[in-house]
Specification:
The protein has about 190 residues and is mostly helical. The chain is built from eight helices and two strands; from the N terminus they run ααβααβαααα. It is about 65% helix and about 5% strand. The longest helix has 25 residues.
Length: about 190
C-alpha cells in the first residue's frame, strides 16, 4: 500500500501493459453504453436520460478484474484463463462496483415499476455484457421463457444475494451445457 492506504496496482500495468488495460476500459465503456441504451430503449420510454456511466468507477471495475485474473493465474500456475472466466469476472465486477449511476433529475411522477428497474440496472447491464462475451447473441436461442426466467433469477441473485465471480462462472457454464429434461415440478 502507498502512503494514502491504497494498494499500488502498477504491477498490473507491468503485466498487461497500459494500452491493453485502456483497451479493456474502452471496450467495457462501449458495451456498457450500448447495453444501457438498448435496455432503456426496449422499455419504450426515454429512460436513458436518467443514467450516466461513471468512468472512474468503471476503471475500478477494470482494475479489480485484472487484479483477480492475475491472482487466479498465479494460484493455478496458468498463463491464460478461459473465456467463461473472463465473462464471469467481468460481469461480477460490473455488478459489484456499479459504474452506472442514476442522475438526480428523475421526476417524482415516474412509475414505481421504473424505479424498481433503476435499482437493478447495473446487474442487468453486467449480465448482458457477461453473457454477450460468452454467447453469440446474434443467433436465435431456443430457451424461450425459461431463458427469460434464468436471466431474471441471475439479475436478482446479483442484486440481492451474496455472489462471487465463481458463482457467475458456474451459471454461465451451466447455460453453455446442453439442458437436461427437468423433473422439478413438485411443490411443498
Amino acid at each position: 500500500m502507498d502512503s494514502t492506504g491504497y494498494k499500488d496496482y502498477n504491477y498490473l500495468v507491468d503485466e498487461y501493459g497500459e494500452e491493453y488495460i485502456l483497451e479493456r476500459f474502452e471496450l467495457l465503456l462501449d458495451k456498457s453504453e450500448s447495453s444501457l441504451s438498448a435496455y432503456c430503449n426496449s422499455l419504450s420510454k426515454d429512460l436513458l436520460q436518467y443514467f450516466c456511466i461513471n468512468e472512474h468507477t468503471l476503471l475500478d471495475v477494470v482494475i479489480n478484474y485484472f487484479a483477480d485474473i492475475t491472482r487466479l493465474k498465479k494460484f493455478h500456475g496458468i498463463k491464460k484463463v478461459n473465456s467463461v472466466k473472463i465473462a464471469a469476472y467481468t460481469g461480477y465486477w460490473l455488478a459489484k462496483i456499479k459504474p452506472i449511476q442514476i442522475k438526480d433529475n428523475v421526476p417524482d411522477d415516474i412509475s414505481d415499476e421504473y424505479r424498481l428497474l433503476f435499482t437493478k440496472i447495473n446487474e442487468k447491464v453486467a449480465l448482458n455484457i457477461s453473457f454477450g462475451m460468452a454467447f453469440d447473441n446474434s443467433k436465435p436461442t431456443n430457451g424461450g421463457s425459461n431463458l427469460t426466467e434464468l436471466y431474471k433469477s441471475i439479475v436478482y441473485s446479483l442484486a440481492y444475494r451474496i455472489s462471487t465471480p465463481q458463482a457467475l462462472e458456474l451459471m454461465i457454464q451451466a447455460h453453455i451445457s446442453t439442458p437436461l429434461n427437468p423433473v422439478l415440478d413438485m411443490l411443498d
